[in-house]
Amino acid sequence: MPRPSTRIATLTGEGDDGWGIFYKARAMKAAGREVLELTIGEHDIGTAPDILTEMHRAAMAGHTGYAAVPGIAPLRDAVAGRLSAQHGVTYGRENILIVPGAQAGLFAAHHAACDEGDPALLIDPHYTTYPGTIRAVGARPVPVAARSEDGFQPDLAAIERAAPGARSILINSPNNPTGAVYSEASLMGIARIAEAQDLWVISDEVYDTQVWTGRHIPFAGLPGMAARTLTVGSLSKSHAMTGSRLGWVAGPEAVIARLITLATHTTYGVPGYIQEAGLYALRQGAAREAEIAAPFRRRRDGLAARLSGQNVLRMIPSEGAMYTMLDIRATGLSGEGFAERLLEETGVAVMPGESFGKAAAGHLRIALTLPDPLFEEAIDRLVGFALGL
């Protein structure tokens, strides 16, 4: 057969896609073995029945044909209103593109920011798809390491050294995989660098409803940043709608207009009945979002209590998101080695830090996504395994 394009063949660079443990755990479950999965950011509660009822109603009402490519007007207006209140910046529907999930939003945003071969900065550790997303648009990912010892806050000096010649920087706060919530000092430092080097800032804020310590600071709300920021959001995490694939990109009107053209040539929009359900979900307000976030804070606190009194596993303070990172370097194992043995010997699946970049080597990402009794059992097994090494 003809060879595939270089771009599609090299999306993951020299390594794999970082999902080996996840795929192995799923294969073990399919073979009938009990596996407790602390791998992906998938809620244990599922999408709420009333949201699904609205989705069904909208489908039965006939909203199953082509929807407007930029998104239905009421949903764009609702997202604009939500972000205007959060950012302190005035958004209208012309500033919003509805996309099939934040992943599609990140792809679109990098298309807007980068030309072929452009360096595109990202903070390491990073979500596993970030480098491949950047490569998919023809740009070149340039990871900038953050340190475990600094709570994985961005290293401003390292960003400043890497920034000359770059076209964009991708940030994510609250952060997946680390649980870090970027401080005002960190974000103001990134803003200063972005202005000095004329960078686009692509701000992935899908975990903005999950903040346990401090506060979430929307990047576009910083002085002078709205004109150079593309904010990516979704309802996946805030409303447990991961499979609905419903998100947005918010930014300057002229760029959103170009991204609507891109959507016309790629996704051709999001199904109308899903958008109607998303509009209904947003109208439930902050109380619904807080209810969905609460279990992750509770499990984070329980994990911290369970790990007290030992010095083999060090929990990096998780300030937000549905994850926390454990430093397991005291065991002498790599993150990959620990995760492989943990799965084989105890039936507990976690993501090795190496899946998220070089800066997370020797760490594990723990997803706080099992019901409390199963979560506690999984952590007991993990701790017992570590202390027995």
TrEMBL record:
Its EC number is 2.6.1.-. Residues 34-382 form the Aminotransferase class I/classII large domain. GO terms for molecular function: L-aspartate:2-oxoglutarate aminotransferase activity; pyridoxal phosphate binding. InterPro entries: Aminotransferase_I/II_large, AspAT/PAT-like, NHTrfase_class1_PyrdxlP-BS, PyrdxlP-dep_Trfase, PyrdxlP-dep_Trfase_major. Keywords: Aminotransferase, Pyridoxal phosphate, Transferase. Gene3D superfamilies: Type I PLP-dependent aspartate aminotransferase-like (Major domain). The keyword Cytoplasm does not apply. It catalyses: L-aspartate + 2-oxoglutarate = oxaloacetate + L-glutamate. GO terms for biological process: amino acid metabolic process. Its cofactor is pyridoxal 5'-phosphate. SUPFAM superfamilies: PLP-dependent transferases. Belongs to the class-I pyridoxal-phosphate-dependent aminotransferase family. This is Aminotransferase. It comes from Roseicyclus marinus. The lineage of its organism: Bacteria, Pseudomonadati, Pseudomonadota, Alphaproteobacteria, Rhodobacterales.
